[in-house]
Specification:
The structure holds two protein chains of two kinds.
Chain A: H1 3-11, H2 17-35, E1 38-41, H3 43-58, E2 69-73, H4 100-107, E3 111-116, H5 150-157, E4 164-167, H6 174-180, E5 183-186, E6 207-211, H7 214-224, E7 254-258, H8 268-283, E8 287-291, H9 299-314, H10 333-344, H11 347-360, H12 365-389, E9 392-396, H13 412-416, H14 423-428, E10 432-440, E11 443-450, H15 456-469
Parallel strand pairs in A: 2-3, 7-8, 7-9
Antiparallel strand pairs in A: 1-3, 4-6, 5-6, 5-10, 9-11, 10-11
Helix pairs in contact in A: 2-3, 7-15, 9-11, 9-12
Chain B: H1 5-14, H2 24-38, H3 74-78, E1 84-85, E2 88-89
The chains are: A alpha/beta, B mainly alpha.
Chain lengths: 481, 96
């Protein structure tokens, strides 16, 4: 059942939030360990929130999400609950406050089941970089679920939670959504508050949703989004009623197909599934326009200058003094900093901090960082030109379906190329959604829809139209059906 | 772009990261590979292009009234600190 269906059932009195919450807690209990989807489960809290939700439903109060359970990516601070960001560094960090996203979804009556596993500090595309171990893909336990929001993706795909939050810096919502058969929405940069969301790369990070349907993503986004006085980068643009906009037709919608997304690296079955989906949109009355965004192939190298540079600055706060891991018996202050950080961070995080330190260091700043920011302008201009001709852009979310655990861990650059189709939207701050559009050898494939700034309504309406015509989003991993 | 062990030591020092001796060649290898990959940016024609630092244009920094809005919660926040005494964070002696 989708989150929207659970909400309707609760308000119709078909079942209670306590029953629904118990159902999901039992599923987590049975399957959670094998998938390693959760870092922390919070059953007592969940049951208490469920009882409160039932009481408010009984009084005729609450909204479409009241009493509906959810899981939060362990990057969002949750007061009184371990908030680890998948890192040894924060494996002892009990957040002293709630992230705005957590607070707003609780205020909407949602019931938190627990905190999901993730690549350490959201750095990764396979969820193999977690201090808490890799997450397994519910469709095939030998495969990765994608990352960095891999725990959220596995949890929703296996129906251990009806919906989950995620964050997306270079594809970390859309890529795992594609690899696990979910609808994954990364909103416009600044659409959702990042207060209490542990920072990775501040000009790129954005919070979003991993859901079973576009309708669920619309409901949860509406509850999360909007300006927050505690995050000055959250934008004061009014939040539309996304669910009300779902019925918009795709007839006459101008869809740009990005030629650069159908190059040599695209696995054949994935390409065919996406092409078929585009034909589906044409059949629904949309116009398909082939487009070129010539600078887009530079998005991955651009990202791997900008994101590490920002991460090296953001992660300097982990000093072994105020919170987080501290090494034993430091000789002096420098030793305390170096060993606490050396022990607290995993290999990929260290690699990115060092890459960032290098590209920002004296003598290299212009050649790397400034250069990357200029290329970022070119990529942004490509998108701007495209959106003067079309309403949305479409293409694959990932070059291949889920790959084997361990297959790409030895070469960081091969791993980075998993995000080749998703990173562009982050660099330009654009909203984008991945929706299921097929199966290749039993593994899900995602269609990506990218829109102009603040066009979430348009993306969700297109995704919803697709989901009214198809059943891909209703397919369950056979082991969890 | 090939980084030497000395380069990695220098970067690790700037980043305040202790790297074990045995790991040095591993990082030298993977960082060299990453720098080689991002080096393809050097071929992009960017003369006269303005650098882009932020994805949204025309966003003004919102300002609020200059009033006290946060209360003192030091003790609550310091519960996560590895070592505190009398409300102060403890570190090894820094002045001899």
């Amino acid at each position: 059942m989708t989150a929207a269906e659970i909400g309707r059932g609760l308000r119709a009195g078909k079942f209670t939030s306590v029953e629904v919450t118990r159902h999901f807690l039992e599923r987590i209990d049975r399957a959670g360990k094998a998938l390693n989807a959760f870092i922390t489960v919070t059953p007592e809290r969940a049951m208490e929130a469920a009882r409160r939700a039932d009481a408010s439903i009984a009084r005729g109060e609450g909204g479409p999400l009241t009493g509906v359970p959810l899981a939060h990516k362990d990057i969002f601070c949750t007061e009184g609950v371990l908030t680890s960001a998948g890192s040894r560094m924060l494996s002892n960090f009990v957040a002293p406050y709630d992230a705005t996203v957590v607070g707003r979804l609780a205020a909407a009556g949602m019931v938190m089941l627990g905190k999901t596993n993730m690549d350490e500090f959201a750095m990764g595309s396979s969820n193999e970089n977690s201090w808490y171990g890799p997450v397994r893909n519910p469709w095939d336990g030998t495969k990765v679920p994608g990352g960095s929001s891999g725990g959220s993706a596995a949890a929703v795909a296996a129906r251990l939670a009806p919906v989950a939050t995620g964050t997306d810096t270079g594809g970390s919502i859309r890529q795992p959504a594609a690899l696990t058969g979910l609808t994954g929405l990364k909103p416009t940069y600044g659409r959702v508050s990042r207060y209490g969301m542990i920072a990775f790369a501040s000009s790129l990070d954005q919070a979003g949703v991993l859901a079973q349907s576009a309708e669920d993503a619309a409901l949860v986004l509406a509850a999360m989004a909007g300006h927050d006085p505690r995050d000055s980068t959250s934008v004061g643009v009014a939040v539309p009623d996304y669910a009300a906009g779902l019925g918009r037709t795709v007839k006459g919608l101008r869809i740009g197909v990005i030629g650069e997304f159908f190059g040599a690296g695209l696995e054949q079955g994935t390409g065919s599934a996406v092409r078929e989906a585009l034909e589906g949109f044409r059949a629904m009355g949309a116009a398909i326009v082939e487009l070129s965004l010539p600078n887009l192939p530079l998005s991955v190298p651009t990202y791997y200058v900008v994101a590490p540079a920002e991460c090296s600055s953001n992660l300097s706060r982990f000093d072994g003094v105020r919170f987080g891991h501290r090494c034993a018996d430091p000789r002096d202050l420098q030793d305390l900093y170096k060993r606490s950080r050396g022990e607290g961070f995993g290999a990929e995080v260290k690699r990115r901090i060092m890459t960032g330190t290098y590209v920002l260091s004296a003598g290299y700043y212009d050649a790397y960082y400034l250069k990357a920011q200029k290329v970022r302008s070119l990529i942004n201009a490509d998108f701007r030109r495209a959106f003067s001709e079309v309403d949305v852009l479409m293409g694959p979310t990932t070059p291949t379906p889920a790959f084997a655990i361990g297959a790409k861990v030895d070469d960081p650059v091969t791993m980075y190329l998993n995000d080749i189709y998703t990173i562009g939207a982050n660099l330009a701050g654009l909203p984008a959604v991945s929706v299921p559009c097929g199966l290749v050898d039993g593994l899900p494939v995602g269609l990506q829809i990218i829109g102009p700034h603040f066009a979430e309504e348009r993306l969700l309406a297109a995704a919803h139209a697709w989901q009214r015509e198809t059943e891909w989003h209703r397919k369950l991993p056979p082991l969890f059906a | 772009m090939t980084l030497t062990r000395r380069d990695v030591e220098g970067i690790a020092h700037l980043a305040r990261l202790a790297i074990a001796d045995a790991e040095m060649p591993v990082y030298a290898g993977s960082l060299s590979r990453i720098l080689g990959f991002i080096d393809q940016l050097s071929a992009a024609a960017t003369d006269g292009v303005e650098p882009m630092a932020h994805p949204l244009e025309n966003q003004l920094q919102p300002l609020r009234d200059d009033l006290v809005t946060e209360t003192d919660q030091r003790d609550r926040y310091q519960r996560n600190a590895p070592a505190v005494e009398a409300g102060l964070y403890l570190v090894p002696k820094v002045i001899e």
